[in-house]
Batch of 4 targets.
Target 1
Amino acid sequence: MNFERVAGIEKSLIRKMFEKANDKSINLGIGMPFCKTAESVKNYAIEAIKNDKTFYTPNQGVKELREEVAKKNSDELSLELDSENVLITNGATQAIFTLMFSLLKPGDEVLIPDPGYPLYKTVAKMLKCNIKRYTLLLENDFDLNVDETSQKVSTKTALIVLNSPNNPTGMLISKKSLEAIASLIKNEGTYVLSDEIYRGLNYEEPIPSISSFLPLERLFVVSGVSKEFSMTGWRIGWIISSRYNISQILKAHMHIISCISEINQLAAVAALKLKFQNIRDIMKFNRDFAVEKLSKIPRIKYKVPKGGLYIFINVSAYGNGEKIANLLLENGNVITIPGIAFGEHGKDFIRISFGADLESLERGLDSMRRFFSYVTV
Ligand code: PLP
């Protein structure tokens, strides 16, 4: 059959919500900080154009950027990294696709979170892998349940996907759980993909990483500048792993995408060198603002997120998440995302993003409060 790999792939519920919305809808759906790129970063990119940085770069990425990424992550993850441990990709999205494409074969088992970022499932499906899911429950602070997850890990498990801070819950995998998961990985053929794209947006405590417990030979850490530096449109992400693993993924990467625009890679160098934290501070303010507003809405349940951009709200006292998200859009003109978009365990939830500018956030949350005051069960 033609197009067999994509035959079962449907438009995401996230997309569908945006298609139902209009120009005036208040956007609490999209997962990005509203902040514009820093002037100094823009100027660096403009200089790059003027200096004719307009040619192909090495497939793996420009050395200067790989060195900056290695330095940043050596500090944050207490690893000893150099530029050969890093592959520059077109955002974290392409990092996830290319590493799963390189690593996995049809029939391999892939363990992903429920609720979890939809990309993992879509890629695993395209690669004809067997998908298993471990659950993250509100009652457990959306931490991974070690007993349940252990039971799902077998000799057939090729990849375990972790995402902390998590999209859509904003919560973390505890150090204890990470240590337990690492100890499960005795089988030679099992790897971990740790999606740490929200690591830089942490609001309370340092975010533990499985990299403290697992050697790089078995681990891929994925991240990028999209969220921490509010540079979603520059499309710069990366994979960190052992030299050998990177050399294997590079074989696919060079044929899929060749390389990333040097202008954008140099803009990322500027962002990493600046080490600014104002996006995190702005997002922390927004989080606190959103939580204060939500506290006025009766009978919803949520956890105050420790990182990332989202609050995952249990609305089961009013209806299922999909129904409520649709009603909120129709009656309150606010875009939220039905939790079912992230897995079965999200069905009673909606996800809001506090990445919006403060005015939109206020209007959206006020509209939600009004909506929940009159919606009948
Ligand atoms: N991983 C997670 C958990 C995300 O939420 C997102 C974007 O929303 C990505 C990866 C993709 O990031 P990028 O924009 O760098 O491709």
Target 2
Amino acid sequence: ALVRRTCFVTGAVGMDGCPEADRGEVAFIGRSNVGKSSLVNMLTNRKSLAFISKTPGKTQQFNYFAVNDKPDLARQIRYGDEVLGSKDRDSFYIVDLPGFGFAKVPQKQRQEWSDFMDEYLTTRETLRVIFHLVDARIGPTEEDAKIMHKVGAIIGSKQQRNHAKYVIILTKADKNVKSASSKNPGKVSESVRNKLCETMKANKVGYAPIVVTSAETRLGRDEVWRYLRLAAEQ
Ligand code: GTP
Ligand code: MG
């Protein structure tokens, strides 16, 4: 099994709230309600590890989940019902970020998240993959273009202290009824794909790999795990 155990570690609101950088990690970013927390649950085979909501703005911190650490009962550090572990050979962190662009989040809060994200993407040395989640039905929005712009400015800059890979994940592909037949649920419309490529080009993020997923049907799980292994292997 790829995932033996996962537990919530901490919710960070600034760099000093992040756990010790002692293993690889991957981050899930994207606009509010795109399905970040749902995907984290699907990938880790959990129903409610990361909290999900119909209402945008559910995730309010940088939530750290440890995958495949060893339960360390001696430490007796309990978070909810879970026991924090110690690092195992193939352990890594998944970081679920607050969503972008939710109107009801106050401007001050948004600015704080945005600044934290800049600093995080630039300086977190153990960051291996940045997953940007985009809704498969509607393709990249204004908000997504802003995220790409941010990532494009950081990736490959002299300030960047990691060699994080940038990967696009299309979410909710099960709902992509217009273009996908039941025979081929992973098919995303040409117009979404083209728009995605245009937006990538305009924001200088290179041509990132695109993975089509559904948290509902578990489509794309193995493909995303190929990237998660990049974080687990160091
Ligand atoms: P924030 O934390 O607010 O940024 O949202 P999020 O990106 O974490 O989204 P979340 O996982 O909470 O999901 C938002 C809504 O989309 C929920 O109602 C989910 O049930 C739904 N959803 C997420 N993934 C899928 C999917 O693959 N298919 C379908 N049909 N619905 C999904
Ligand atoms: Mg969330």
Target 3
Amino acid sequence: MGIQILSPQLANQIAAGEVVERPASVVKELIENSLDAGATQIDVEIERGGSQLIRIRDNGSGISKAELGLALSRHATSKVATLLDLEQIMSLGFRGEALASISSVSRLTLTSKTQTQNEAWSALAEGRDMAVNIQPAAHPTGTCVEVADLFFNTPARRRFLRTDKTEYAHIDEVIRRVALSRFDVQIKLSHNGTLQRHYRIARNESGQHRRIAAICSKNFIDNAININADYDGIQLTGWLGLPTTARNQADMQYCYINGRMMRDKLINHAIRQAYTDKIPTDLYPAYVLYIQIDPKQVDVNVHPSKHEVRFHQARLVHDFIFQSLERSLQQGIEQQTLDSIT
Ligand code: ADP
Ligand code: MG
């Protein structure tokens, strides 16, 4: 076989291999798009664990009729225009790959209306050349993305899907992560026509506590220390579980860097180190932590699924986190001991 240029669909399907692992990854990408569009309400409807249908509706800025086709093309993004933008990225998305990838492995319909348009329009990409077909539709300002029959044309991937229950559990976890990162956004999740989660906008601390209790348990929030520290432009806030909330699985560890959920080795190490000698080595601490740092100080462009970051001043970030958490933890433990004897 001589050298050939891949068809757009095949190129997108190959890219999809990296970002679209399962229904939950689709949900993650689409919700990130809704958040980037400034949505304050996001409704997620799932059928059959997401293998039959994923529908995400938001009240964000919408996409104009003229740009619907572009939104579905590869490397098309409204979020990054220059290298400088990439170095100070504030949005969740920036690769311009998600919609193109997802639409190459599903039947995707993108419906949207901007504030200034009088009517909504719907787009779907089909066939090898990913030609986009645009039709009038009914929709309020905002966007609705429907992803039906995920992996219908990539049987090998389709076979990798687990049971509806398992796939739905992954989606539920994605929703928890988002819900913990944006108290100012209402999120609803339904499965097979039944409302499963309804996270209301949390306008104050008690609202936040209610949401955290719903996601992490009441026991966690009742036994967590409120963290609030900053150093040299890095801000660390959130809730750190006292040793009594430690778990036998690492299933309650939420860490956000500039609003993005991360599983970063360096950060994990700093947190773990703060708990040294405070919890048994076979238990895992529970926490919800937020790190705010100048985007120029961190490179988020490391991994396609964006779980890893690179800090320019890694040592400094590590030590700041370790020291602040250790100090707060020590104080929290002393306070808890005091409370128990008085
Ligand atoms: P990226 O998020 O990396 O820019 P995507 O493929 O996810 O790439 O989306 C492509 C573009 O489509 C975005 O840059 C944005 O302009 C537009 N878009 C996608 N989803 C939405 C949405 N829910 N609301 C408004 N615009 C959207
Ligand atoms: Mg995106």
Target 4
Amino acid sequence: ASILVLNGPNLNMLGVREPEVYGRQTLQDIVEGLARSAETRGHRLEAFQSNAEHELIERIHRAYHEQVDFILVNPAAYTHTSIALRDAFQATRIPFIEVHLSNIHAREPFRHHSYLSDIAKGVICGLGASGYGLALEAAFQFLEQGR
Ligand code: DQA
């Protein structure tokens, strides 16, 4: 199957950005690990990062036309602001898991609400970079067993 990993604003700064909150792995490190696991499991994985809301939305639309089967998304700050990103997921109906490196519920109140969580298959937060790997395992299960 075909899996897309989407990362939102400032995640291109991982490794440098507040390592005490987000860890020391770069986005490239994380994506390379995911791509290896997907390949081993016989799936295709592509990754896209953008700091621009419209580019993330357009990537979701493109994923629909490419018949992408599943998305792992860390929407970063757009989690807490973007009705447009929510609408893109609802429009395309591509199943997705929401991932956050940090535990958004243990942070500032403005990070507690997500515009995506209630329409996600599931949400993983607070487990650092390994959260992406765990989400990918869950995606494999969904794609291979249909739930
Ligand atoms: C984040 C949490 C968001 O609140 C924040 O704006 C981010 C990263 C995380 O992965 O912990 O940019 O999504």
